[in-house]
Design a protein that fits this description.
single chain, about 130 residues, seven-stranded antiparallel β-sheet, about 35% strand, alpha+beta, two-stranded antiparallel ribbon, 3 helices
Length: about 130
Amino acid sequence: MAGTEFLQGRFGIEIEMTGITRNKAANTVAKYLRGTVDKLYDSYDTHRITTEDGRVWTIVSDISILPQKKVNGENVSADKTYSVELISPILTYNEDIETLQEIVRNLRNAGAFSERQNRTGVHYLK
């Protein structure tokens, strides 16, 4: 991809993390976006965040994530509610990158972290 072509396209992103529960992650994202959270009670323990403009961000479990939390500054094992994956709606760089960055900052401030084995996936759409 040459030059600024990426800046003109659309993309979605998936970010794996731990350190906070899915519930806390969903509420953190919803608070920043001024959205509402619906818990679906499905096999992924899906938390759907719907924003005022109708876009949907999703928090789900991911079996590949080693759930951890910090206790006295140390990472320790945690229950499966600490397996957190954030899935964005379709985004554009010019309109949404600042929002995405702020969501990540808010999640980190809430206690979320990613270890080396955690992944971030970007799905680019022209």
